[in-house]
Amino acid sequence: MRALILEKLYEWSLIPYQSFKKNKAWDLGIEDLLQYPKGTLGYQMGYFLLSNNFDLQDKLESHDVFHVLTRTGITVPEEISMQFYLLGNGKRSAYLFSVIFLGGLLFPDYFKMFRSKYRLGKASLPFHQLNFKKLLDQPLERIKDTFLIQ
Questions:
Q1: In the chain, helix, strand, coil percent, each to 5?
Q2: How far apart are the two ends of the chain, measured CA to CA in Å?
């Protein structure tokens, strides 16, 4: 039930959130991403989207990059834990704070997981603000090594 609540809130907030984002959409599809060499950020993003039956959402592409970089799954507690990771990494947004607040409130039994992800984000060099579109051709492991992403 609690996961359903957060999923509904996400659905309702998606369009308004996209309209407030100032960045430009990448204008790429999964097929485009899968054209990058294996092992690159672009290819790994395409693989992540394809294997989870997702589409790349305009202006929200970095969210999928965060999943790939941090190897975070797609369950509701994992989505919340990724926001804790990003908080530790220095990201600040109303969306992030609302997910952390509601997630912490609805999933207190995952506190240890959330705290662990926060610490991992804190141990990484700040990467949340990068222009990931320009890094799609770079090896995923090089990006992770450069920013100390575990």
A1: 65, 0, 35
A2: 32
Residue in the structure block whose two tokens are 């220095």: 90
Overall domain count for the chain: 1
- Tell me the whole-structure pTM to 2 decimals: 0.86
38-93: pLDDT as tens digits: 999 999 999 999 999 999 988 789 999 999 999 999 999 999 999 999 999 999 98
Let me know: does 105 contact 5? Beta carbons within 8 Å. Answer: no
Flag whether 130 is in a domain: yes
Listed residue (137, 142, 129, 146) closest to 45, CA to CA: 137
Write out the residue range of the structural domain in which residue 70 sits. 2-14+26-146
User: What three-state secondary structure class fits 126?
Assistant: coil
